[in-house]
Amino acid sequence: MSPLPQSTSARRTRTPAVDPACAAAVDLALDAAEDTAWPSEVGEHLGLRAEGDRVVTHGFACVDPAYEGWYWAVTVVRAARAKNVTVDECVLLPGDDAVLAPPWIPWLERLRPGDLGPGDLLPTASDDVRLAPGYTGTDDDSDFQTSWELGLGRVRVLSAEGRDEAVERWYDGPAGPASPLAQSAPAQCSTCGFFWLLAGELRQIFGVCANEYAPDDGRVVSADHGCGAHSEAVSIPGAAEHGPPIIDELGYELMPADEG
Fold it and tell me: pTM of the predicted model, to two decimals?
């Protein structure tokens, strides 16, 4: 009969002596486990451990296939100078080989791009490293354009770390040079008339596609990205119109059209 796992409190303090009366109350503990587990059955007695003075926990195997590796823990107690043993609690606990749910992860860490739907709100943490404090806004209309370019009037703007994360994500993503679409393109976006450069230093790497027929229309693309909707596709060597279709006549016969 294997002993039960030691509780955390028992490992931190002295091990109490096992009360003989509580240790002998196996049938009392079994009745409590069966009442709690009903209509399921309770398995064999696994052992006991002392939780404190005149406090003992009996363990019984759980035979429910949904709780493989779990056990019923029934704690019995006896008051000082009393002879009767009573049941304190009965719970189902995981054993060393129990099948447990994965650790809980906060929703913000579980969120992935594309999870946000219409009507959903995604609050941004006040200490988000991707953002930095903005500057004081201005009411002068003459300074509107300057304020907009510098980000004035916004509480927070992109930090250096946030900008670097975006650059890496965009460049390594489907709008970068390594995507299958870019690999089969006749030329890069940097030579396309529909390539609209971003402002600031990001214009050296990225722009926005302004071709309504392109798969990346309205999206940020890298300068070395590309697709078949390049503005100069017809003049790029190897990108001319296809020749006339070749008809495969194997497997059927050509019949003259009915003149009637």
Answer: 0.45
